[in-house]
Predict the 3D structure of the following.
Amino acid sequence: MIAIIGGGKMGEALLAGLLATGYEPNQVLVTEPDSERAAELRERYQVAAVPLAESARRAATLVLAIKPQDMVELLDELSGDLGSDTLVISIAAGITTSLLEKHLSGEVAVVRAMPNTPALVSRGMTAVSGGAHTGEAQLDHAESLLRAVGDVVRVPERHMDTVTAISGSGPAYFYFIAETMIEAGVAMGMTRDAAKKLVTQTISGAAAMLGDAAAHPVVLREAVTSPGGTTAAAVRELERHGVRTAFTDAIEAARERSRQLSEG
Ligand SMILES: NC(=O)C1=CN([C@@H]2O[C@H](COP(=O)(O)OP(=O)(O)OC[C@H]3O[C@@H](n4cnc5c(N)ncnc54)[C@H](O)[C@@H]3O)[C@@H](O)[C@H]2O)C=CC1
Ligand SMILES: O=C(O)[C@@H]1CCC=N1
């Protein structure tokens, strides 16, 4: 039995992914304090929404999908209720395995995972790291659960704040670019629908080309950039406005915020 603690956006994405990849509704529990939201999930997925203590008692794997700021209180509430073999997977930004272990009594197996919202369409990217008491089989199990919503990689935990800044928050950066490009098209007289179609297919096509293991972004960009042409004119403006530095600084700020979240 798997219990998802926190039925928000990411909790629902994981729940939907697990059910779509072969888990039965009676193998998954949800703990969600917002009763309207709990009823919605129950109705949409036919899963039981139960109190935290019941999830802790019945589930072999708990997925903590609550806000980082709520984590310590939840861990303290959970501590003592877990079985000796329970695996705890946290997807909260910034929350370290040592913080999870510190607030759960005994030698609990914990996994820190960082998914992203494309999990909602089974195209998520998740990175995982195991804690001090987490064996290979438990890490494998966590990976296979998370594979229900996309790709999974294992990383050393020292890279998790960077992962959070790149792939965790990353979809927002692409939506930001998409929004800007669509609005530019609208400002130049296109309909919003037509501009959105152009932008969406362009992002998806570019991502498909970049997905080829042999491809490199610089080479792909050079292929678009005709001598004396439109792309060269555009890229010169991006460089003039410091967009490259802005992106690097943005990713550093996200990594720093992820670090801070463990400090409460
Ligand atoms: N939204 C995103 O793109 C990503 C979010 N995350 C992480 O996932 C976690 C959840 O994020 P979202 O789903 O976006 O937030 P959300 O706000 O949509 O969901 C959080 C849910 O937890 C519930 N909750 C609050 N206290 C609870 C408790 N004590 N027990 C059980 N449930 C409780 C809330 O009612 C809410 O439904 C966060 O820690 C975030 O860092 C990780 C990767 C990506
Ligand atoms: O913004 C956040 O804190 C969460 C973690 C990664 C994506 N969303």
Remarks:
- Residues 2-159 form a domain with the Rossmann fold fold (CATH 3.40.50.720).
- The longest helix spans residues 192-210.
- The mean pLDDT is 96.
- The radius of gyration is 21 Å.
